[in-house]
Protein backbone atom coordinates (compact mmCIF):
# COMPACT_ATOMS: atom_id res chain seq x y z
CA UNK A 1 0.00 0.00 0.00
CA UNK A 2 2.79 2.44 0.89
CA UNK A 3 4.58 1.71 -2.39
CA UNK A 4 1.42 2.62 -4.32
CA UNK A 5 1.22 5.97 -2.54
CA UNK A 6 4.87 6.71 -3.33
CA UNK A 7 4.36 5.86 -7.01
CA UNK A 8 1.24 8.05 -7.17
CA UNK A 9 3.07 10.99 -5.56
CA UNK A 10 6.01 10.65 -7.97
CA UNK A 11 3.63 10.49 -10.95
CA UNK A 12 1.75 13.56 -9.70
CA UNK A 13 4.99 15.54 -9.43
CA UNK A 14 6.10 14.49 -12.93
CA UNK A 15 2.71 15.40 -14.41
CA UNK A 16 2.75 18.79 -12.64
CA UNK A 17 6.21 19.64 -14.00
CA UNK A 18 5.23 18.51 -17.51
CA UNK A 19 2.02 20.57 -17.48
CA UNK A 20 3.87 23.64 -16.24
CA UNK A 21 6.33 23.33 -19.15
CA UNK A 22 3.54 22.73 -21.68
CA UNK A 23 1.64 25.82 -20.57
CA UNK A 24 4.76 28.00 -20.91
CA UNK A 25 5.46 26.46 -24.32
CA UNK A 26 1.94 27.11 -25.61
CA UNK A 27 2.12 30.73 -24.43
CA UNK A 28 5.40 31.17 -26.35
CA UNK A 29 7.35 31.72 -23.14
CA UNK A 30 9.16 28.41 -22.89
CA UNK A 31 12.68 27.63 -23.87
CA UNK A 32 11.91 25.26 -26.72
CA UNK A 33 14.13 24.89 -29.76
CA UNK A 34 17.34 25.18 -27.77
CA UNK A 35 16.63 28.39 -25.89
CA UNK A 36 16.55 28.98 -22.19
CA UNK A 37 14.13 30.85 -20.01
CA UNK A 38 15.66 34.20 -20.97
CA UNK A 39 16.00 34.59 -24.73
CA UNK A 40 17.68 37.71 -26.05
CA UNK A 41 15.69 39.51 -28.75
CA UNK A 42 17.35 39.63 -32.17
CA UNK A 43 18.25 43.25 -33.07
CA UNK A 44 16.52 44.99 -35.96
CA UNK A 45 18.38 45.43 -39.24
CA UNK A 46 18.44 48.96 -40.68
CA UNK A 47 18.16 49.40 -44.44
CA UNK A 48 19.97 52.35 -45.98
CA UNK A 49 18.21 52.49 -49.36
CA UNK A 50 14.70 53.29 -50.58
CA UNK A 51 12.05 50.69 -49.61
CA UNK A 52 10.55 49.32 -52.84
CA UNK A 53 8.06 46.87 -51.31
CA UNK A 54 6.83 45.35 -48.07
CA UNK A 55 5.55 41.78 -47.82
CA UNK A 56 3.99 39.80 -44.97
CA UNK A 57 4.84 36.11 -44.67
CA UNK A 58 2.48 34.03 -42.51
CA UNK A 59 4.49 31.28 -40.81
CA UNK A 60 3.36 28.07 -39.09
CA UNK A 61 5.59 26.29 -36.60
CA UNK A 62 7.06 29.15 -34.56
CA UNK A 63 6.49 28.40 -30.87
CA UNK A 64 8.79 30.71 -28.92
CA UNK A 65 11.07 33.76 -29.05
CA UNK A 66 13.92 31.49 -30.07
CA UNK A 67 11.93 30.41 -33.14
CA UNK A 68 11.13 33.99 -34.13
CA UNK A 69 14.77 35.01 -33.60
CA UNK A 70 15.92 32.21 -35.93
CA UNK A 71 13.53 33.38 -38.66
CA UNK A 72 14.48 37.04 -38.23
CA UNK A 73 18.22 36.31 -38.19
CA UNK A 74 17.97 34.14 -41.33
CA UNK A 75 16.00 36.72 -43.34
CA UNK A 76 18.20 39.59 -42.15
CA UNK A 77 21.32 37.79 -43.42
CA UNK A 78 20.06 38.36 -46.96
CA UNK A 79 21.25 41.54 -48.65
CA UNK A 80 18.58 44.14 -49.41
CA UNK A 81 15.87 42.96 -46.98
CA UNK A 82 14.96 43.55 -43.35
CA UNK A 83 12.49 41.51 -41.29
CA UNK A 84 10.44 42.08 -38.17
CA UNK A 85 8.92 38.90 -36.81
CA UNK A 86 5.80 38.83 -34.65
CA UNK A 87 5.52 35.55 -32.75
CA UNK A 88 1.95 36.16 -31.56
CA UNK A 89 0.69 36.90 -35.09
CA UNK A 90 2.97 34.18 -36.52
CA UNK A 91 4.24 36.44 -39.28
CA UNK A 92 7.33 38.14 -40.65
CA UNK A 93 7.01 41.61 -42.17
CA UNK A 94 9.81 41.97 -44.71
CA UNK A 95 10.88 45.29 -46.20
CA UNK A 96 12.83 45.23 -49.47
CA UNK A 97 15.32 47.76 -50.82
CA UNK A 98 16.33 45.37 -53.62
CA UNK A 99 14.17 43.31 -55.93
CA UNK A 100 14.41 39.83 -54.41
CA UNK A 101 11.90 37.14 -55.31
CA UNK A 102 9.51 36.15 -52.50
CA UNK A 103 10.39 32.51 -53.17
CA UNK A 104 13.92 33.18 -51.89
CA UNK A 105 12.53 34.36 -48.53
CA UNK A 106 10.05 31.48 -48.43
CA UNK A 107 12.81 28.92 -49.07
CA UNK A 108 15.00 30.40 -46.32
CA UNK A 109 12.12 30.18 -43.81
CA UNK A 110 11.11 26.67 -44.84
CA UNK A 111 14.72 25.45 -44.74
CA UNK A 112 14.57 26.22 -41.00
CA UNK A 113 11.67 23.77 -40.64
CA UNK A 114 8.77 26.24 -40.61
CA UNK A 115 5.92 26.46 -43.14
CA UNK A 116 5.01 29.65 -45.03
CA UNK A 117 1.23 29.55 -45.42
CA UNK A 118 0.67 32.92 -47.11
CA UNK A 119 2.54 35.88 -48.56
CA UNK A 120 0.88 39.21 -49.27
CA UNK A 121 1.46 42.94 -49.18
CA UNK A 122 2.36 45.99 -51.17
CA UNK A 123 4.51 45.51 -54.24
Would you kindly provide a written description of the structure presented here, covering whatever features stand out?
This protein has 123 residues and is α+β, with helices and mostly antiparallel strands. It folds into two domains: 1-30; 53-122, Alpha-Beta Plaits (2-Layer Sandwich). It has helices at residues 2-26, 65-76, 102-111; strands at 53-60, 81-86, 91-96, 115-122. Strand 2 (81-86) and strand 3 form a beta hairpin. The longest helix is centred in the first third of the chain and has 25 residues, at 2-26. The relative contact order is 0.18.
* Terminal-residue CA separation: 71 Å
Largest sheet: 4 strands, antiparallel
Structural class: alpha+beta
What spatial order of strands do you see in the largest sheet? 2-3-1-4
The level 1 CATH classification of the largest domain is Alpha Beta
Number of domains: 2
The CATH architecture term of the largest domain is 2-Layer Sandwich
What is the overall number of helices?
Answer: 3
Query: How much β-strand is present in the residues?
Result: 15-25%
Number of strands: 4
Helix and strand string, N-terminal first? HEHEEHE
Radius of gyration: 20 Å
Taken from the alpha-carbon principal axes, the silhouette is elongated
As a percent range, the share of helical residues equals 25-40%
Provide the residue-averaged pLDDT. Answer: 87
Remind me, CATH topology of the largest domain? Answer: Alpha-Beta Plaits
Which residue ranges are poorly predicted, with pLDDT under 50 across at least 5 consecutive positions?
none
